[in-house]
Task: structure prediction
Amino acid sequence: MERLVKHAADNSGSLMTTKRGGVASTAEAQRADFTLVGNKMLAPLDRAAIARIESQCTWKVAHAGEPIMSRDSDSRDVMFVAKGRCRIVNFSPSGREVAFAIAGAGDFFGEMAAIDGLPRSATVVALEDCVLGSISLQSFRDLVEQYPKVAFVIMEKLVRIVRTADDRIMDLATLSAYQRVYSELLKLIKPDPVRAGSWLIYPLPTQAQIASQASTTRETVARVLSHLASDGVAERKSKTLYVRQVERLRQLCDKMPSHVRPENGQ
Result:
């Protein structure tokens, strides 16, 4: 695995680099990508304050599919996503993936271990090529103590995590596996800019990714998509899923269709 770590600019203004596990080129990312401007945690700060945080960062490029952070690791760094998207996941003892969230440009993660001192609670994997900056535990604590508004942003995120967890517990307790897949699809749809009254999902996540979000199996997702296609509710073309009957999809989410039989554990 190749990983390029980039540190803050030195006095000459050039980027210093450190290589881990192989040779990598500084051309892997444009210099403009190495910025924290626009990051949600730092939204209360002015540009000068953000620049000071940037100077404390260690930067790296992670390629699609590359692990960024491992569950149970002792690292306490807090990470900022400057470019790209990452999947925050966990794995059951059998190896089944459970997705927690997707962190995109402007998001941050790793704050939980920095706050409570416990091992990491999840694994983070690059969904696409990413540029990330990280600050040490001490830099994070200094930041929070110096800027109370930053602490409030972090608290808001933690509250959202709790609310999302509550919703998922309710879904697991009350919805079938099919209904959970329908629910995930409804969260992803957007109006079709070409065809009035139609909706779409682009890019359509893989069946494994949808299964991970819905806490079910890839085979269940495949059956759901097949049923939606045969019933004329949705039509898949390449990386796009066109939802022709969005109200019907909402109805399916609310009530299990008659042709579906509950599966053990799903």
User: Anything to note?
Assistant: The first helix runs from residue 47 to 56. The radius of gyration is 21 Å. The chain has two domains: 3-171, 176-254.
